């Protein structure tokens, strides 16, 4: 009724909220007291995400990295100790190094496959265990229930970056996670046209998250929230298609002579595959491959510089297919990254899969031309 029959809600923009009386303004007697407290547009997205995740509440941020920062600031304070997987998204590591360290928070990096042995890394001041499943670029799947069990035993908060699976393929809070993060920039958006982060919290952690959020007013714009709400309606359909195409493409690549191995959680050879099979209900369209060791960077440039459909660019989850080279050796500290060849991360988009295969075939031909 409030929308006069329109299917989509209006976009509320604003900073100032008008009060009807002195009494109302003195007592902050209004649903929203200022623009930083939110709006119906923002609240609609928060409520929808809370329902999807089974959380006690959700807050939004202007980017996925903003969500990571807000979550870590919620669970850590000066003098605390944080455990972070060695496979984590590099900007997460940078936030620990460049920001948390300045406030006296110590970070220890751990093998993502450590499981319950993470208990050996816990100190008396450990406040938070950060998880990312699967790992950024390298796709190790963590034993989330085992780590959560250890965390609860020691009254430690857990934060999970759940962007790859989304709540559709992994229900973080049902597995005991306190704060679950999503870069809405990826699959929620689905069209590479917005930046957004979402943080959902369980009942115990929700008051602390909301308090930190309110103190920082780190909220996205209403237009982005509207686009995210629109993307939410089709996210499950796009994810299913991404899963189908991703697995088909990964199987095809596995049989290419140029490919040494495929790093995809749904494949038995992927580290932690057994945890993916046990805990997850699906996979997205993002995975990596390791090339035959005979190829070098010059070969790779000849391949990638002339792709037709696969573009080189960061992020993922949009319509377009992406491909980027990566190397984790320069920043990993707790584990050794030695894949045996050059590595590429692929985002399989919504283009025709036969066209994508043809693009890669032509790319592999260029890769081999330099070798000859």
UniProtKB/TrEMBL annotation:
Per its record, how is this protein called by name?
Answer: Cystathionine beta-lyase
- Source organism lineage? Bacteria, Pseudomonadati, Pseudomonadota, Gammaproteobacteria, Enterobacterales
Indicate whether Mitochondrion appears among the record's keywords. no
What is the source species? Salmonella enterica
Which of UniProt's keywords are assigned here? Answer: Lyase, Pyridoxal phosphate
Cofactor needs: pyridoxal 5'-phosphate
Choose any GO biological process term that the UniProt entry carries and state it: transsulfuration
A GO molecular function term, named singly, is: pyridoxal phosphate binding
Please indicate if the UniProt record lists Zinc as a keyword: no
């Amino acid at each position: 009724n409030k929308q006069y029959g329109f299917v989509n809600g209006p976009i509320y923009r604003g900073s100032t909220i008008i009060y009807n009386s002195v009494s109302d303004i003195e007592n902050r007697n209004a649903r929203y007291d200022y623009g930083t407290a939110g709006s119906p547009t923002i609240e609609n997205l928060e409520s929808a995400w809370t329902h999807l995740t089974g959380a006690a509440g959700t807050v939004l941020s202007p980017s996925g990295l903003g969500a990571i920062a807000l979550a870590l600031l919620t669970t850590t304070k000066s003098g605390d100790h944080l455990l972070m997987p060695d496979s984590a998204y590099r900007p997460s590591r940078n936030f620990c190094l460049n920001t948390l360290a300045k406030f006296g928070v110590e970070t220890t990096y751990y093998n993502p496959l450590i499981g319950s042995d993470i208990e050996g890394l816990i100190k008396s001041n450990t406040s938070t265990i950060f998880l990312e499943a699967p790992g950024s670029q390298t796709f190790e799947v963590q034993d989330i229930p085992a780590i959560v069990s250890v965390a609860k035993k020691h009254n430690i908060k857990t934060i999970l970056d759940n962007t790859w699976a989304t709540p559709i393929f992994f229900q973080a809070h049902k597995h005991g996670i306190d704060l679950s993060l999503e870069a809405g920039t990826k699959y929620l958006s689905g069209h590479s046209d917005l930046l957004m982060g979402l943080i959902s919290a369980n009942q115990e952690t929700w008051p602390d998250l909301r308090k930190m959020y309110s103190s920082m007013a780190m909220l996205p714009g209403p237009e982005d929230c509207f686009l995210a709400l629109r993307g939410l309606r089709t996210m499950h359909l796009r994810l299913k298609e991404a899963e189908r195409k991703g697995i088909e493409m990964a199987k095809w690549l596995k049989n290419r002579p140029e490919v040494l191995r495929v790093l995809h959680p749904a494949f038995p050879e992927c580290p932690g595959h057994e945890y993916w099979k046990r805990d997850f209900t699906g996979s997205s369209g993002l995975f990596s491959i390791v090339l035959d060791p005979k190829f070098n960077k010059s070969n790779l440039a000849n391949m990638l510089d002339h792709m037709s459909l696969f573009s080189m660019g960061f992020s993922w989850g949009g319509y377009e297919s992406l491909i980027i080279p990566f190397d984790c050796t320069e920043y990993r500290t707790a584990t050794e990254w030695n894949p045996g060849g050059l590595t590429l991360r692929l985002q399989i988009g919504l283009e025709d899969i036969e066209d994508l295969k043809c693009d890669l075939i032509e790319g592999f031909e260029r890769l081999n031309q330099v070798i000859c």
